[in-house]
Amino acid sequence: MISKENFKKITDYLWEYQKTGQMNVPARIYVNERMLDKVFKDKSVEQLINTASLPGIVNFSMAMPDIHEGYGFPIGGVAAMDAEKGVISPGGVGYDINCGMKLLKSELSEKDILSNLVKLATEIQREVPSGLGRGRQVKLSIEELDKILKHGAKKLVEDEYGEKEDIENCESNGYIEEADPEAVSSHAKNRGRDQVGTLGSGNHFLEIQKVEEVFDEETARKFGLFKNQITVMIHTGSRGFGHQIATDYIQIMMKAMAKYNISLPDRELACVPFQSPEGQRYFRAMSAGANYAWANRQMIAHYVRKAWREILGPSTGSGLKAVYDVAHNIAKLEKHKVNGEEKELIVHRKGATRAFPEQPVLIPGSMGTASYVLIGTEAGKDSWYSTCHGAGRTMSRHAAARSLSPQEIISQLKAKRILVKCYSLRGIAEEAPQAYKNIDEVVEIVHQAGLSKKVARLKPLAVIKGE
Amino acid sequence: MEKYKILEHPSDVKIQASGETKEELFLNAALGMNAILKPKILDYKSETRKIKVKSADVDALLVDFLSEILYLIQTNKEVYDNIEFSKFSDTELEGALIGSKTDSFNEDIKGVTYHDLKIKQKNGLYEVVVLFDV
User: How many whole angstroms separate alpha carbon B67 and alpha carbon A325?
Assistant: First the structure.
């Protein structure tokens, strides 16, 4: 039984589990002592230790403070493999390939939109369907879809569903070049044809927010953020398209693993050498999934802008500009220094956000709690420039829905002057703030540990959820 | 015998399904998956879809079978409440799914996982726990 006693304190915010048994490297968790006590209540630490046994893993298997139990890898996990000798694992990316965040900023302050808030939230909800049946349904041809898979958000901006700043202010400029539609099954394409511009369900959301507090004036100015400013945040991923790619390749890798003599403590870590035909094919398919997600968030931004103009009229300044767009479920080919030498690594971030120095980092809170804008720092190099991705659940959806009444949650949020728009009352109960870790504490740890620094806190004014 | 029940999980949804035969177990697991999706049925005119799955073992066959049904549910906007198997072994199945058109769903399932999945026989009943990533 693993407990706190097995962990060595490196700093107040970093704990290490020594290499034992099948592990190739030690495991590390970025948490404070109080949170460390709590991480043992699910299987996430065991999963983190199992991840350390993956072939070709470099330095450490790592977990961010929002760690919780996932599929194979823990959620909040970061693992980099040597691109020559290491493996790639769909479990290290997750079912929702390039689930991530997009933040738009306006030139307006809270007082400018308060009287129109309900109308604006209603119009956004109407314009951005969940994709589970209600609302707009557009079915792309396979040829149109393939172009999106190849060029992601860039393709949509070329087709006038956005402006060039949208892709300038986006991780990888909105597409990964290695993406190949040929590596994607027809099942995945069919699931993806009618879901570009849809929000999905679960913890995915759209929020109208205000900048509640600025921690770093200079950086906030650089990002174009100021106190009381209205922002819009989008949280979603690659929808059924990415889910099917994960399903397909987990199946393929489970069969292929024996061929490469890979044996692991948990079969959910299914992986193959990155340089193998199956590994390369998954990387190309996953990249197509990532491109789909960037296009999805771009299309949603387009419809949010349409709703914004519709309700607030042309006198709303230059509308909504992109602050940034960043993934938190992805595997990226990146160059990093390992023992003083530059190496190509395949960095798996599952429920972890890329935080390159000077890059804006977007961290969503749970429904009705604050979200954060952070900035990546040079000190983040030990975690391959990665940081947390959100609050992290502490209560099951089922338990949340049973113990908390949706009406009670809506009135609690109303008391905090937060409007909720959701078709499903159960969806509200499942995502109640009480079901999550405290986002302020999670962000404080990555700030103190130096993985990324606080720039601003965003308070929701209206939450629009899928189902 | 309860066909299926929904169990606790910190971030996802689990079901436990039972059946007197493996065929019945597979059907009840599919019904459990429907219960998670909470579909709004449009009309009860029966829709029929063919299904054919091949896998390495019976556990993988169940995962692949549910994944295939999930695909058919989401792309055809239908739910299936009955299955007529024309072929069924531990590694291969074929049959027809019978169901209805839906208007919408109240929940989304991302994927059917292999998490701790093992079909077991207990007191003459087949049982399995399936974790869905939602």
Answer: 31
